[in-house]
Amino acid sequence: MVMNKKRVNKIIDGKIPSKDDLIVDSIKDQLEEKMQASAMDINVFCKDGYVHMSGMVDVLSEKKTAESIAKDIEGVKKIENKITVAMDSNITDKHMEKEVINQLQNKKNLLGVGVKVEDGVANLLGSANTLKDAHSAMAVASEVRGIKDVVNNIKISNAEYDDAQINSHVTQSLSTTNLSYKDIAHSVNNGKLTLSGYVNSKEEMELAKEIAMGVEGVKKVINKLKIRK
């Protein structure tokens, strides 16, 4: 399907587009470019940098993707995501549960994860080796039709490592990347990792978080990184 060309902000009837108009247009452009036809039923409104999103999508992952796209637009202060996930009366909780389990079992790193679905809400249970694996399980569940929310109750296995060992593994993992890891400080308390210091861009910040989530024993990542100006 061919989507609209990028919006051109013109002066209409003597009115210059406001910052909010520009934000809305930028969000809509990115939604159409990255989500294609899935973005057709998404509505966007902005007032003083506060974005309200509404409309309907087929699966939860699309709702999350739309919000993530909007967050990356310059000028956006906060997002209220009221997009709803289309429900099909023919799909029961048991159907959804079975589909989530089937998808989880297709991934070797998620074999320890189970699910219970109630009223369209998937409650993920069991254990995973890393926080990254737990987030992967959440992503898998959010792509199943009918799931309207995902609750993460997955336990991260960290019996083998104490905080000092986990912290050392984080240092090793960060040092193998192109990140200026010496400018990134980190500490671990009961498996909860805090990142602080400076990175050069939002992409580097996301990379640092992703790497940290992939370290065994890390139960949670608290991001206090700042982007160098």
Q: What does it look like?
A:
With 229 residues, the chain is α/β, with parallel strands linked by helices. It folds into three domains: 19-85, Histidine-containing Protein, Chain: A; 93-156, Histidine-containing Protein, Chain: A, CATH 3.30.1340.30; 163-227, Histidine-containing Protein, Chain: A, CATH 3.30.1340.30. The chain has helices at residues 19-35, 60-71, 93-105, 131-142, 163-175, 202-213; strands spanning 42-47, 50-57, 78-81, 84-85, 113-118, 121-128, 149-152, 155-156, 184-189, 192-199, 220-227. The strands form three sheets. Strands 1, 2, 3 and 4 form a four-stranded mixed sheet that branches. A hairpin with a 2-residue loop joins β1 and β2. It is flat and about 55 Å long. The two termini are 40 Å apart. The relative contact order is 0.10. The mean pLDDT is 89.
List its traits.
229 residues; alpha/beta; Histidine-containing Protein, Chain: A; 3 domains; four-stranded mixed β-sheet; 34% helix; 27% strand
CATH topology of the largest domain: Histidine-containing Protein, Chain: A
The CATH class label of the largest domain is Alpha Beta
* Distance separating the two termini: 40 Å
Can you summarize the main beta sheet? 4 strands, mixed
Helix-strand makeup class? alpha/beta
Q: Show unreliable segments.
A: none
The tally of strands reads 11
Proportion of residues in β-strands: 25-35%
Number of helices: 6
Rg over C-alpha atoms, rounded to the nearest angstrom: 20 Å
What's the order of the H and E elements?
HEEHEEHEEHEEHEEHE
What percent of residues adopt helix (DSSP H or I)? 25-40%
